[in-house]
Design a protein that fits this description.
Strand content: 35-45%
Helix content: 25-40%
Largest sheet: 9 strands, antiparallel
Distance between the termini: 20 Å
Length: 296
């Protein structure tokens, strides 16, 4: 019998994780797992449990949203490579971008079966500084504040609509940031209203990228950069182009790179996996290729 750790965020989404916990434990039990459950709180985040106890297990099952998964990965990444447990993900959040990208079942019971019968697949992780990581996106600029400034109760009741409403509400205050960008084999400089360093096919459950453009273990990020349109109609066209995966235009640039450095004229707010990610005037991001294994 395999001994696994289970990290649960009881407040993800509409508190569904707490409601389903007994059923999930029972299902894992039928597959002869011995389970130790760690419940997150404001004092003990999932990264604490993953870093402190993760090396004692071969499998860490994360129950929550993308933020809980991201925090779990941060803890696991602080372990020596050979001590990192594989990760099973039972998605219970609002957008569940990682689950969408990995094509994991949205039904918790089916997600348990996917973990129990799946196989570990290597997955790239982004690194921002010595011990800060992200699973699918680090971003600055327009709309990025929506994901963490929208209150959790509004996210729970509106779901994806909360992101859209927040985006519309910030149209009047869109600001461009002058930035110098250095990446594999090239440099750019200009005024951008948005920049996203991603390893995903879905952002906020709204923007979709083609699986043909995104390989999750190739050591490369997909970087989306959006220049400031000259008018609101141009902005509308730009947003429509991104929503339709038409990432070829004068205002949108897409790059593939293993590392990227941003140098701004002033400190700029970032988000990391949909949560507040701090302010940086200079930020270098690198790809940690195949750094963790997720059960698919």
């Amino acid at each position: 019998m395999e001994h696994i750790m289970m990290i649960v965020n009881p407040y993800s989404g509409k508190g569904k994780a707490k409601e389903m916990l007994c059923d999930i434990i029972s299902l894992f039990g039928t597959h002869e797992y011995i389970i130790t459950v760690y419940v997150t709180s404001s004092e003990r985040r999932s990264s604490y449990f993953a870093e402190t106890y993760g090396a004692d297990y071969g499998l860490a099952v994360c129950i929550g949203g993308d933020g809980t998964l991201s925090d779990t990965v941060n803890g696991i990444m602080r372990l020596p490579f050979e001590k990192r447990p594989a990760i099973g993900y039972i998605p219970m959040g609002t957008a569940n971008d990682v689950a969408t990208t990995l094509r994991l079942p949205s039904d918790p019971k089916k997600a348990v079966m996917a973990v129990a019968h799946g196989s570990p697949v290597a997955f790239d992780i982004g690194q921002i500084d010595e011990d800060t990581f992200f699973t699918y996106i680090a971003a600055f600029g327009a709309f990025t504040e929506v994901s963490y400034e929208t209150p959790q109760n509004i996210k729970n009741s509106l779901g994806h609509l909360a992101y859209v409403l927040g985006g519309i509400g910030s149209l009047a205050t869109i600001k461009e940031h002058h930035v110098k960008i250095e990446y594999d084999g090239g440099e750019l400089e200009g005024d951008y209203i948005f920049g996203g360093v991603t390893n995903t096919t879905s952002v906020a459950g709204i923007v979709k990228f083609s699986p043909d453009d995104v390989k999750l273990g190739d050591g490369l990020f997909e970087v989306i950069l959006v220049k400031k349109p000259v008018s609101l109609p141009d902005l509308s066209k730009t947003v429509t182009a991104i929503l339709n995966q038409d990432i070829v235009s004068d205002s949108v640039t897409m790059l593939h790179t293993s590392r990227i450095k941003f140098t701004f004229d002033e400190p700029v707010k970032w988000t990391r996996d949909g949560e507040a990610g701090g302010e940086y005037k200079e930020l270098e991001i690198r790809n940690c290729r195949e750094a963790v294994k997720i059960i698919l």
